[in-house]
Amino acid sequence: MAEAARKAFIIGHPISHSRSPMIHGHWLEKYDLAGSYERIDVAPSDLTAFVRGMRDNGFVGGNVTIPHKEAVCGLVDHVDEAAQLIGAANTLWFEDGRLNGSNSDAPGFAADLDNRAAGWRQARAALVLGAGGASRAVLFALIQAGIPEIRLVNRSPKRARELADRFGSGVRAELWDARNELASGAQLVVNTTSIGLNGEGGSPLDVANLPDDAIVNDIVYTPLLTPLLAAARARGLKTVDGLGMLLEQAVPGFERWFGVRPQVTEALRALVVADIEAHR
Fold first, then answer.
1. 3-state SS, one letter per residue, for 236-271
2. Residues 25-34: pLDDT tens digits?
3. SS in 3 state form for 188-213?
4. Does position 279 have pLDDT exceeding 90, yes or no?
5. DSSP H or E stretch at residue 27
6. What CATH number is given for 107-244 in this structure?
7. What is the spatial distance between Cα 89 and Cα 260, in angstroms, rounded to a whole number?
8. Start-to-end Cα distance in the chain
9. Which of 7, 30, 69, 238 is labelled catalytic?
10. Alpha-helical regions (H) of 66-182
11. pLDDT tens, 261-275?
12. Is 108 exposed, middle or buried (0-12, 13-18, 19+ CB in 10 A)?
C-alpha cells in the first residue's frame, strides 16, 4: 500500500506574503515527491489549538513565521540548542512521537555565506547591525563559526546589551553612533535592521572605513541590491544579499518532512527573483 502524501505548512499572521510555498513547491516537483506545503493564516489566539491539532490534521511538520516563532517554543515537546539560545523556532517536525522545534535561520545564514563568500569563517571581527530576532540567529551562527570578536550595535542600546549578555563574552554591545568607527577592522558586516528594506532609508553604514577584504551581507532581499550593498559594491567589496539565507533556511525542514535533502540551485533562485521583480 502506497504511503500517504506528506503534508507540511507555513503558519503566520499575516501569511499571504510568504514565498515558502513557492520554494517547497519547486522542490516537491523537482524531486517528484507526493506531498503538499500550504500557507495557513493562524491568529495568535488560535496558535495553541493549531499546534496541538497538527498530527490529527495529518501534518508531518511545518514552518513558523512572525508573530509565532517565540510562542511556539512553549508548545512543542522539545527545542534544540539553536532554538533555545535564539529564543525562537521556525521549523517543527515529529520524531519518535515527539513534536520538535528548531531554528534553521542560523544554519541557513551560514550555508549561504559558505556558498557565496568563501573565507568568511576566517574573519577576525564581525560587525552586526540590529538586535532583533534575525540578529539572534546571525549571532548564533557567527559564534558557531568561531568568529572571535562580534561587535553588536543597535539603535536601542538596552537591546544590544541584553543580546550580548545572552550570547556571552564573544559578543560586545556598542553604541549605534559608533558603528562607522567600529567598521574599521571588521572583515564581515551583517545588516539585520530594516534600513534599506524596499530601498528606503539609505545605507545604515558608511562603508569607507571597512577593510578592503570585508564581506558585506544584508539579510534584506527586497530589493536584492540594498543601499548598503550598492555602496559596498561600488567600493569593490564582496557582497551577499539576503535571498540565499531565505532559500537555505528552507532546506532542513524539507529534508525532515519529505525525506530528501534539496539543493538550492540557480534555477530556484531565479524563480524567486522573478517573483520579487513581479511584485515590486
1. CCEEECCHHHHHHHCHHHHHHHHCCCCCCCHHHHHH
2. 999 999 999 9
3. EEEECCCCCHHHCCCCCCCHHHCCCC
4. no
5. helix 20-30
6. 3.40.50.720
7. 21
8. 47
9. 69
10. 81-86, 105-116, 133-144, 157-167, 179-182
11. 999 999 999 999 999
12. buried
Distance, in Å, from the CA atom of 163 to the CA atom of 177, rounded to the nearest integer, reads 18
- Residue spans of the domains in the chain: they are 6-104+250-278, 107-244
CATH code of the region 6-104+250-278: 3.40.50.10860
pLDDT at residue 3 is higher than 70: no
The percent of residues above 90 in pLDDT, for the chain, comes to 94
pLDDT tops 90 at residue 258: yes
Distance CA 14, CA 26 (A): 22
Find, among 113, 251, 82, 265, the residue nearest to 189 by Cα: 113
Could you read off the pLDDT of 53-111 as tens digits, one per residue? Answer: 999 999 999 999 999 999 999 999 999 999 999 999 999 999 999 999 999 999 999 99
Report the alpha-carbon distance of residue 89 to residue 104 in Å, rounded. Answer: 8
Is the four-CA dihedral 67, 204, 195, 175 of positive or negative sign?
Answer: positive
Question: What is the distance between the alpha carbons of residues 264 and 270, in angstroms, rounded to a whole number?
Answer: 11
Across the strands, what pairs with 215?
Answer: 188, 238
- In the block, cell 546571525 appears at 138
Q: Does this chain's domain 6-104+250-278 share its CATH topology with 107-244?
A: yes
Q: Tell me whether residue 69 is one of the annotated catalytic residues.
A: yes
Q: Specify the pTM.
A: 0.94
Q: In what order do the strands lie in the sheet with 59-64?
A: 35-41, 6-12, 59-64, 91-95, 98-102, 78-79
Query: Which residue is it, cell 517528484?
Result: 32
Confidence check: pLDDT of 212 > 90: yes
CB 7 within 8 A of CB 237: no
